[in-house]
Each structure stands twice: as C-alpha cells, then as structure tokens.
Amino acid sequence: MKTNRESTAIVWLGHSCFAVEKNGYRIILDPYADNSVPGYGPLRIDANEVLCSHGHGDHCAADCIRIRPETAESPFRVTILNSWHDDKGGAKRGPNKITILEDGTFRIAHLGDIGCMPEEDQLKQLQNLDVCLVPVGGFFTMSPAKVYDLMQILHPTVVVPMHYRFRQGKTTFGYRLIAPVTHYTRYCRNAEVLSRNYLSLPEDLSERTVVLTCRETADRK
Questions:
Q1: The domain spanning residue 149 has which CATH number?
Q2: What confidence tens digit (pLDDT) does each residue in 112-159 have?
Q3: Beta strands in the chain (DSSP E)
C-alpha cells in the first residue's frame, strides 16, 4: 500500500506479523518463517528494523526480511516489556515480549504470544494505547475470553485481533488448534471487519475492534 508519509500505517501481513511505518521508516513485528504457518506463503518484504516477541519460528524469522541498506533515523521509541508465553511463568512455552511503539503522537502495542495477564506495573505502561495488536486464537496464548478481559482493563482505542484461524476460499490460514476470530469478537459490541489489511492513523482512530482482511501478498514488494 502507498501511505502518506505524515501518517502512521499499520499493515497486517498475516498471522502475528505486522509492518508499522512512518516517514518511510518501516518496522516489521513477528515475521513468520516459510512453511511455518498453514496457508501463508513466504514473507518477502524490506524494512529498516525487525522486532520479534519470542524465538518460535512463526514469530522470529528475521532472515525473511530484507534490511534496507540505507541509514535512516527511526521515528519510533521502542519499549519492551518482558512477559510469558503461558500462565506457568514460561515453564510450558518460555518468555514473550510485549512491544510498545511510540512516534510522538500515537502509541501502538504488539502483545506477541502473550499467555498470561501482564503484571500491575506493565498494565500501567499499557494504558493510553491508540492501537493494540493482540492474539485471540487461544490454546498457545490467553483464551479469547481472557484477552477480552485484558482489553477491558487497557481500553485501547482500536483493538486489532491477530494469531487466529480463518478460511479464504479453499485455504485455511493458521493452526488447526487455534480458534477463529469470532470466538473473540462475539464478546465485542463494536467489532468491524475491514475489506483491507491496514490502518492509517489518525484517519482510522475510532473506538472499536477492527478485523483486518488478509491480503496475503499485500505490500510485500
């Protein structure tokens, strides 16, 4: 997609992978490895920076991203909060990182594969979010119901579900063990499905849950 350099773009590339871009500077969050997630084809996109929430192959394939050779100053301040991939202190699936991106105007959080409620001080740091990217498929992460409870504590302006299973044509995207997005959105009063895979801030800032439509090859050139 082509974006206004003054806006902040959030583009869903599938599963838990997003591109966040401003002033031509692009950060990729949680890229998945080739053949690691059912349905999804290879990720091929360039970026200035790659951030991964944990070391599992469907979230940490930095080698699939072409790092731009030019030096550019990032407009984003990055804050990392250490959490867990399960509710057993990491004993089952290890650690997880929550990433907060701030560009001086907007605050965006990517919760990675969060498996438990954040600690009290982390909940405070996660207040006043404009956009929260959150896994809703359960099994490997918090259940849809618990994710909804977390969103009621955080009150982000826009909630964007990720890490769920869906069908497009004859193809199933996502792991069989994770739930479809409707297991989360049935709790939401203001869920909206967009016919595109991106948000543009501030244009798309209104209080709601936004389900982005996967366009598997969108913005990968």
A1: 3.60.15.10
A2: 999 999 999 999 999 999 999 999 999 999 999 999 999 999 999 999
A3: 8-14, 17-22, 25-29, 45-47, 49-51, 65-67, 77-84, 95-102, 107-110, 131-135, 158-162, 166-168, 171-173, 191-193, 198-201, 208-211
Q: Which residues of the chain have pLDDT under 70?
A: 1-6, 57, 215-221
Number of domains in the chain: 1
User: Does residue 2 belong to any structural domain of this protein?
Assistant: no
Q: Helix %, strand %, coil % for the chain, to 5?
A: 10, 35, 55
**Which structural domain range is residue 29 located in?**
8-211
What is the pLDDT at residue 67? 92
- Are 57 and 35 in contact, with CB atoms under 8 Å apart? no
